[in-house]
Design brief:
By secondary structure, the chain is of the alpha+beta class. The protein contains 14 helices and 13 strands. α1 crosses α2, α2 crosses α3 and α4 runs antiparallel to α10.
């Protein structure tokens, strides 16, 4: 068994934060261009350099990476295809952590040289719009220290004092006895917590290009025995899945084993793109980024929760100013499957989460904004 040691460097390419290694980049270029010379041009390298590097890697790995047929287009070997797939899957799974590492480095130096800079710690359910918000806010000296985790874990981190804001999402119009209500109600307390509006987004089925199985509902996934990739326990999308299964009268195991889970929407989309799964529940933006089809199922609201005591603190006020700016809201409106929803406004919990009903007998003082 070979032990492969790859060294990566941090970089930014067209706004995307990446960790980069020349081998998978060469393999991807060969697959895209169909020749070593074309790959060399695409990478801005010489033919001799690319050809020599691939040969050296084949010697080290003791396995062919390229089918070297004379007079034919260069193709990746089966091993080369598997290696490229593994690297892309790893990139998709690590994307939130890579982005957080970049942000840590940028924030550390920015704060050191900017006396007016603010830092805001945010634990949040994975969301592509939040990653873009981090870049947008940095231009105004507001540095968001985002740690992507499940919605449940994010609120727990807020309650334990590990962050100032918690990002979580809930199904619109969730019933009082829904999994959404049962999951989040014990974690949020009127008078203690406040919600700041962020986004309305669409979740649905991420499927292969052309939707070859014709999947339109979760019941279709179950009927076809399609391979479904799940999100882990503690994530908002796993909670959402429970409510959607209940709506369609499906049992929790109707979609097969929960063994295949991915930690982000991007990783779910990559699993479908690679052929490792037929479908998964996720956001439209993740499907769009990988040229996959998307079947919308529901709308949900993405909220930012904080303690009432932090509402008037300078970093929180700075974030609300950014969220309410026309520049940010126009940027969000351009994202597939997103729309700004009461962005930056402080909201009454009972109004935003309809399953929060307060009894006059039990609550003499009602929660107010």
């Amino acid at each position: 068994m070979h032990r492969i040691q790859l060294h990566y460097t941090l970089s930014r390419d067209a706004g995307n934060r990446l960790i980069r290694n020349p081998l998978p980049e060469m393999l991807a270029a060969v697959a895209q261009e169909g020749s070593i010379s074309g790959a060399a041009r695409a990478l801005g390298l010489s033919y001799r350099h690319v050809w020599g590097a691939l040969k050296r890697w084949e010697e080290q790995l003791d396995a062919p990476l390229i089918v070297w047929g004379k007079g034919q287009a260069a193709q990746l070997s089966e091993f080369g295809e598997k290696l490229l797939w593994a690297e892309r899957q790893a990139q998709a799974r690590l994307a939130p952590q890579i982005a957080a590492l970049h942000a840590d480095l940028e924030r550390a130096f920015a704060v050191a040289f900017d006396a007016n800079a603010h830092v805001l710690a945010l634990y949040a359910s994975h969301d592509d719009a939040l990653g873009l918000l981090r870049e947008h806010a940095a231009a105004d000296s507001l540095h968001l220290d985002i740690r992507f985790t499940g919605s449940v874990d994010a609120i727990r981190a807020l309650n334990e004092g590990r962050c100032t804001l918690a990002g979580f999402h809930t199904l619109e119009g969730a019933a009082p006895l829904s999994q959404t209500a049962r999951t989040y109600k014990p974690l949020l307390k009127p008078g203690l917590h406040k919600l700041i509006g962020f986004a309305r987004r669409t979740q649905g089925l991420i499927v292969a290009r052309g939707n070859p199985l014709g999947l339109q509902r979760l019941s279709d996934v179950a009927a076809h025995g399609a391979r479904f990739v799940h999100r882990p326990l503690g994530t908002g999308t796993r909670v959402l899945l429970g409510d959607l299964l209940d709506r369609e009268g499906l049992s929790p195991d109707a979609l097969g084993s929960f063994a295949h889970t991915e930690t982000s929407h991007a990783a779910v989309a990559q699993a479908v793109a690679s052929g490792a799964a037929d479908a998964g529940l996720g956001i439209e933006m993740a499907a769009h980024a990988r040229h996959l089809d998307f079947v919308p199922l529901v709308h949900e609201r993405y909220h930012l929760a904080c303690l009432k005591s932090s509402l008037d603190q300078a970093p929180t006020l700075a974030l609300r100013t950014v969220l309410q700016s026309s520049a940010w809201q126009a940027r969000m409106a351009e994202l597939p499957g997103y729309a700004p929803a009461l962005c930056g406004q402080v909201l009454a919990m009972s109004a935003v989460l309809p399953w929060w009903k307060f009894s006059a007998q039990k609550h003499v003082v009602r929660a107010t904004c």
